[in-house]
Amino acid sequence: KHYTVSEMEDKIRAIKQTLGDKLFIPGHHYQKNEVIQFADATGDSLQLAQICAANEQAEHIVFCGVHFMAETADILTTEKQQVYLPDMRAGCSMADMADIYQTERAWKDLQERFGDTILPLTYVNSTAAIKAFVGRNGGATVTSSNAKEIVQWAFTQKKRILFLPDQHLGRNTAYGLGVPLDHMAVWNPIHDSLEYDGESEECQVILWKGHCSVHENFTVENIRQLRENDPERRIIVHPECSHEVVMKSDDDGSTKYIIDQIEAAAPGTKWAIGTEMNLVNRLIENHPDLDIISLNPLMCPCLTMNRIDLPHLLWSLESIMEGTEQNIIQVDAVTSADAIDALDRMLQRK
Length: 350
Ligand code: 13P
Ligand code: SF4
What we know:
Layout: H1 5-19, E1 23-24, E2 26-28, H2 33-36, E3 41-43, H3 45-54, E4 60-62, H4 67-76, E5 82-84, H5 100-114, E6 118-123, H6 128-136, E7 140-142, H7 147-157, E8 160-164, H8 167-176, E9 184-188, E10 193-195, E11 205-208, H9 220-229, E12 234-237, H10 243-248, E13 251-252, H11 255-263, E14 270-274, H12 277-286, E15 291-294, H13 310-321, E16 328-329, H14 333-347
Helix pairs in contact: 1-13, 3-4, 6-14
Bound molecules: 1,3-dihydroxyacetonephosphate and iron/sulfur cluster.
Binding site for [4Fe-4S] cluster: 92, 212, 302
Subcellular location: Cytoplasm
Pathway: Cofactor biosynthesis; NAD(+) biosynthesis; quinolinate from iminoaspartate: step 1/1
C-alpha cells in the first residue's frame, strides 16, 4: 500500500506511542529532517555511541545513521537489546575502504618493518572486524571529537601509530599535535605497499589510504573563490576534509564542534561550512539570524546516510510491531569481545 507522507508520520507516531521506552531511535546529525523529527536522541557518532551504551531499557534500537554506527550500538548494548538499520544499503564508503584481510596484510608488513613499535587506532567509521583487530592489538577507536586525545594517548603507549581508515582525519590530527608531514607515511591497501620517502626511524604515523567521498568534495578552489568574493565569511570545516582545505580554513572540528561554534556565533556573522548537506541545511534553518552557506555550492550530501528515509523507518518499525523484525544488526560474540576493548579504551571505561 502507498501511504502519503502524513499517513506515514501518523503511523510512526502511533508506533512510538505504543512501544514507549521499549523503543529507542538514535539519529545522526547527517540524517534527513523527515527522519530526525522522530529521533529520541540526536548526536555525532561519539555522542550516539555513549547514549546507546547508557540505554538499558530499550528492547528495540532503530538506528538512523549508517551501518558502522548500528554495529557499534550493538556491541555497546546488552544481548537482550536488538539493533536495526532501516536500510541495509546505508553503509559508509570510507568504512568500506579497509577490509580485515587488507588490514592483516598491512599489519604483517608493518611489524616486519618497524617491529613492535606501532599501536593501531581506528576511526569509528570502520567495520566491527577492524575495531576487533584494533582491540586485539591494544589500540583504540577514535571519533572526530576525541581524535586528538586518543592520538596523544597512543603516543604514550608506542612510538608509532597506524591510523585507519581515514587518512585525512589521521593527518590533520597528527599534524595538529606537532607531527611533521614528512614523518607520516601512507599505507596503500590496493597495492599492499607503503608510500614513504623519509627515514624509517623518523616515521611516526602510518595513514591508511581511505577518505570520505563527501568531505573530499570541499576543495581549495572552493576556498579560493570564497576568499576572493566574500573575504569576511568565516570558513569552518570537518577534519575529514583534506589537509590543504583544513589549513586554508579559519577553523576545523568535529560535527559537534561545528554545531557548537554556530550556536555560539554572534548574530549577523557570515559562515561557510564544509560538512554534510543535511546538517548544513539544518543549521541554516535553525539560525535565521546568521548568514550560513555550504563551502561547496553543490552542498555535498552523504548518499548512504540519505538512504534512511520515512518509508524505511516506518517499514522497520512496522516489522517490529508485527514480530517479523528485519535488518537486525548483530555482531558475532568473538568480534564484539575484541571490538569492545577498542571502544572501551576510547570511552575510558577501562
Ligand atoms: P562525526 O559524527 O564523528 O563528526 O563523524 C562524521 C561522519 O562522517 C559520520 O559518518
Ligand atoms: Fe561515511 Fe563520509 Fe558518509 Fe560519514 S559522511 S557516513 S564518513 S561517507
